[in-house]
Specification:
With about 500 residues, the chain is an alpha/beta fold. The protein folds into 3 domains: about 80 residues; about 270 residues, Aspartate Aminotransferase, domain 2 (3-Layer(aba) Sandwich), CATH 3.40.640.10; about 120 residues, Aspartate Aminotransferase, domain 1, CATH 3.90.1150. Helix content is about 40%, strand content about 10%. It has a 7-stranded mixed β-sheet with strand order 1-7-6-5-4-2-3, with helices on both faces. Strands 8-9-11-10 form a 4-stranded antiparallel β-sheet. The N and C termini lie far apart (about 60 Å). It binds pyridoxal-5'-phosphate. Pyridoxal-5'-phosphate binds next to helix 6. The site of pyridoxal-5'-phosphate has 13 residues, from helix 6. Keywords: Decarboxylase, Lyase, Pyridoxal phosphate. This is Amino acid decarboxylase.
Amino acid sequence: MSHQIDLTFSDDPERFRRLGYLAVDLATDYLSHIRKQPVFHPMTPPERQELLEEKLTEEGIAPEELLADIRDHIFTHPMGNGHPRFFGWVNSPPASLGILADLLAATLNPSCAGGDHAAIYLEHCVVRWLMELLDFPSEHSTGLLVSGGSMASLTCLTAARYWVAKKEGWNIRKQGLNPQHPQLMLYTSQEGHSCIHKTVELLGLGSDAIHIVPTDNDFRINIQALREAIRADREAGRRPFCIVASAGTVNTGAIDPLNTLADICAEEDLWLHVDGAYGAVGKLDPAAAPLFAGLKRVHSLAIDPHKWLSVPVECGCALVYNKQLLRETFSLVPAYLQVEEGKGFAGLPWFSEYGFQQTRGFRALKLWIVLQSMGRQGLAQRISRHNTLAQHLASLIDTEPDFERVAPVSLSIVCFRYVPSQLHGNEPAIEQLNRAIVPAIQASGEAFLTGTELRDQFALRACILHDATTEADIAALIEIIRRIGETITRQA
Ligand SMILES: Cc1ncc(COP(=O)(O)O)c(C=O)c1O
């Protein structure tokens, strides 16, 4: 029998309602039982095969059956980031209201390229809120929601490349890059995120255009080395054009000295871009706010509400201080999209003139509901709580003789190593043990942790982003690592 249905359910809205209730039940059951589930549990080979090789049916499958399939085969193997003991990378749990907003955004399913409809005004509103929350100047600036932090930096740095070419008297959009132009140089620290490297490559500048600057003891960009790098590049005939600072590095949460960098950019005629994908909202914690001084002086800022703000993925945001410049960088309106300002569907200048995407999703709704449901105070308390939990983890590590912290804690990331007494001084063995702990803890399902390298030394890394994480979870993390570490050592 064919289950063919009208995909819009226009002939059976009550069935759609029942399916919606089933979906909400599924989401609620999943979220409310998450603590009882393993944080992560690896898929078996047959389970992987089943998903990889599923056949597309000829006649369709009843939606009720498909929802049951999702429950039994998809929800059984989550990534794990909804769990309060997930400390990996920078992947937050979804804000529950954000889940509902995604459903409602898809219900309207607008393109947020532009036009005179509610979604557009809401996006302008939430972008302004983000500017205000982070002290980014809002008067002549603009911003737009994008897929994530990488796309936000790509958008901002495309503007930076356009800006410098214009200053140097060439039109990058028309002429592109050519060998007669001086090599453009961009500066970022050793701790700069890989998306900056990918961006520079995508912009056609080549990875040689990145001058990687060493860091100081706190993993912040080394200012003296930066100044020397700029001087050396100028002497060699290159054109320094941009510093990319981190406001919360992915490894340790370090925040580069933004005011000093803004001074250097003013002196040297450089664009200052800040990658705040993970950490910019750390500014909402009054205890951390002074570290972000200078944020109002930057040319562009990448933020990522789908990280620390728990807006369901995907939701990044690019902010650029010069609205006109961003439009010049991206605007290309073919005849079929032309509207007359102030008439018909036109509305405000279109977002699609300020970024790469033409059809754009309604990301603003999930961001709007998260921000407005928390309010300024709620957001600040939440971020402060995560930072306090990170300090708590750091203090536990500092008091346990078999643990060693390897970086300062500025925000909600803690980097450390398990160093049992019998391995003291034996660096290769410590490294091997800590590397082995990561997959073992992930497979255990008891907690989820990832690792990284700091100055060529391997470190365990815990990032706290979940509102349900407690001090007991933090204490349990230490115990789990110790137990797993001891088991690995015994078996070695
Ligand atoms: C500091 C930093 N920048 C950029 C990114 C990339 O953001 P996205 O993964 O949203 O593209 C990340 C991701 O973790 C990050 O932590």
